[in-house]
Amino acid sequence: MDTFPKAQEREALESVVIRFAGDSGDGMQLTGSQFTNTTALMGNDLATFPDFPAEIRAPAGTTYGVSGFQIHFAAHDIMTPGDEPDVLVAMNPAALKTNIGDLKERGLLIVNSGAFIKGNLKKAGYAENPLEDEAFLSQYRVIKLDIQAMTLAAVAEFELGTKNALRSKNMWTLGLVLWLFGRETKHTVAWLEQKFAKKPDIAKANVAALKAGHAYGETAELPSGIGAYEVPKAKLPAGTYRNITGNDALAWGLTAASKLSGLKLVLGSYPITPASSVLHALAKLKHFGVTTFQAEDEIAAVCAAVGASWGGALGITTTSGPGVALKGEAIGLAIMLELPLIVCDIQRGGPSTGMPTKTEQSDLLQAVYGRNGDAPMPVLAACTPGDCFFMAIEAARISVKYMTPVMLLTDGYLANGAEPWKIPAMADLEPFPVSFPTERPEGFHPYLRDPETLARPWAIPGTPGLEHRIGGLEKDFDSGNISYDPDNHHKMTKTRAAKVAGIAKDIPAAAPEVGETSGDLLVIGWGSTYGAITQAVRRARAAGKKVSQVHLRYINPLPPGLGELIAGFDKVIVPEMNNGMLSKILRSEFLVDAVGINKISGQPFKVSEIQKAIEENLA
Amino acid sequence: MSPSDPPKKLTRKDFASDQDVRWCPGCGDYAILATIQRTLPTVNADPAKTVFLSGIGCSSRFPYYMNTYGFHSIHGRAPAFATGLKLTNPELDIWIITGDGDGLSIGGNHLMHVLRRNVDVQLMLFNNRIYGLTKGQYSPTSLVGLRSPSTPKGSIDMPVVPALIALGAGARFVARSVDTLAKHLGPTLVAAREHRGASFIEILQNCPVFNDDTWAHVKSKEAGADAVLLLEHGKPMIFGKEKSKGLRLKPNSLELEVVTIGEDGITEADILVHDETNRPMAFLLAGMEPPTFPMALGVLLRDPAPAYDAAVLAQVADAQAAGEGDIDQLLNSGHTWTIE
Hints:
Helix content of chain A is about 35%, strand content about 20%. By secondary structure, chain A is α/β, with parallel strands linked by helices. In chain A, strands 11-10-12-13-15-14-20 form a 7-stranded mixed beta sheet, with helices on both faces. In chain A, strand 18, helix 18 and strand 19 form a beta-alpha-beta unit. The longest helix of chain A is centred in the middle third of the chain and has 20 residues. Chain A is globular and about 85 Å long. Helices cover about 30% and strands about 20% of the residues of chain B. In chain B, the strands form 2 sheets. An 8-stranded mixed beta sheet of chain B has the order 2-1-3-4-6-5-11-7, sandwiched between helices. In chain B, a hairpin with a 5-residue loop joins strand 8 and strand 9. Chain B is globular and about 95 Å long. The chains are: A alpha/beta (about 625), B alpha/beta (about 350). At the A-B interface, helix 1, strand 9, helix 10, helix 12 and helix 13 of A face strand 2, helix 2, helix 4, helix 10 and helix 11 of B. Chain A: This is Pyruvate flavodoxin/ferredoxin oxidoreductase-like protein. Chain A: Keywords: Oxidoreductase, Pyruvate. Chain A: GO terms for molecular function: oxidoreductase activity, acting on the aldehyde or oxo group of donors.
């Protein structure tokens, strides 16, 4: 049984931001995700931000090998992983060096003094041990502990050897932090016992370390000014919740789309950060009839998906920016063939290899325009981890209804970040069954269009009487045969554009997320900046400002009524994690002087940064 | 792959589309097209279940001329489209049409992987040792010294041997035939179609405009008999105008040599017998080139193994047999909590 100080002995906090930081081999992602799971089960709202290096095991002790996991949890609903941590857990000098600048003034610093040895200090670039610098330490509330020694003592009885024993130090740390915030260890104990079921000694050592950390908090006298805290449950809408990352939500949404459409899901994919876990998740769902194909390269992955689509499957490819670049020609072919295809781009820092594990929104123009020829395709963007589920279904619906490839944008922040998610029921989701033609209609040809949607028939190989030839060469509007006729090419180009533009009639009209339809300032965003923008706009409105927010989940075509909505405001700002892409599109579509608020650091926006931009643009 | 028989007996005409064929006069592709259109009815192929899928190049226009399902894709990628299609509908009889540029240059990667995975398709590589559609540049199979618009002083690239690439990739059916040898090409294609798994067929094809007579030494009636070895499973590998030449392993070596029956005490019993299941021998046969050796035509290797598509779909079927997935159950799996 865990015991806690009675409620009145704990200081109640509305919200807390904790950042766990350590070497990439220190298990910080695990520590963070375990704290997250327990916190979710305790009924707090939360948002997380894992931030790790691209190297699997960067050299130990270096600043570029530091791995971080930030969690924001609260007694109210929250939308971001928080701007500045209230609590920093630093497992070594490099972690301290790279993260201390973000810790709030008088923030709580929990530091593993055992790692502050000469070699580590040097690698982190410290000439002197900062833990001996009273002026430095006096800026914070500090719990300085030799976590390594405590861990070794806690697991001594298992005789694992020093190296293995030290692996449990993240669990000792987790135990302490769980205690500080009034959280139980039992969920992590259950998880450890399951994870190390085949290595009972390792399981026992980790549990012992976890409990020792927890007990330390309870029994040791903490430095003055540091107490025990609690964060009461948040009042969230009734329902059953789970934590979900964007990539899991995406994989499950695609699977749900397969059920709702009645189509077999065929995924062609090639491993790429930060998209690979979608492939992993789908590969486990074979019992849903899901077929996954790890192709020889990005191009083969999309080509296999297009081949699958022609055969009557829900053809999908998942990738990141460099993969989209490679797939461009095949996506253009799918546009020419007018076949369904879902391209999921989990964006990361670019150009080129860029910053694979860092988040960015810089594939937007590539998504909207990045193909040879006049090659329009619908572009959708999810705005929260849970929204990836719904936008995956929406991408599939549009793709099969309009016989067009669809690009769905998410990003590394959504992919890896988790949020509590109210679990939807399949019964509440609208099915969109697909039927393939079986009879040869009078005058059949593969480009005979539905007059309303302009979609061509999805005639699939294997159907007697519908034999036809399609390909990347321009086709005659009236027969579907190859045509180099100048007027026909003009007409076909216009038709393909009209088909995609016409989807605007089939998506929700533009409406403010927060605020009125007119005012002084409109903040337009898209994708994962949703939480930060919403909080910033709410705060500005609470301060009496006439600010509204529009958040776009459809970027091509844009939602109907957006131009009119924009016209109702004196000024428009567009916060984006790129050098100005949506702002360019809005300028070209609406001749509006949209001001870009751009952050291209591989890190998500802080609420305060957008607040500042709002204030500056209202001045 | 042998789809169920269609009700009526089809003819060559049933497999010809209404499109005008647009290859140059005298192109070897005409002969290949005619042979396929003649051959498919003889094996009761069902046009509705037959798919021709190509990349880019002269040969890749092929699907437009077949009255089956046809897919003219992008340069080099046909094997990848075919893999996705086959995983979606394994009932389809899929023919990939490619050339030496499409299949071995821009699409070399995909060719290698469709073969090593053993996807149940036929891949016909029309090898004319030149780029035709882009007007005569040298290709990966062009001989050293070939003068072309992009190699005015002669090609300096070493050419590849397509059958060796296929064998190296782990292909389990490798054959070679000639565009105008309908009586040889037809049965070779039938054998490829009957083979489960990936079948690779190199077809020596003439481009009369940019690389005329590149295979003349193999095709001409006079020289041909000495320059060609027609392989037959279980038969001694004998060739030549007089049927007097044969192949044997050079003693104490891993090389073939050409010997003459009746000379130096050589009898027919000394001649190697062709064994389609012998992969090391297939490598030796594939690498033979005139004038030292005859060119081996026919089935070099036929060694079936389970096809990729069947194995993938078996994993899916097994998983489903153990219990169909339920989305609501999936979404509610793991840690959940309820807020009243």
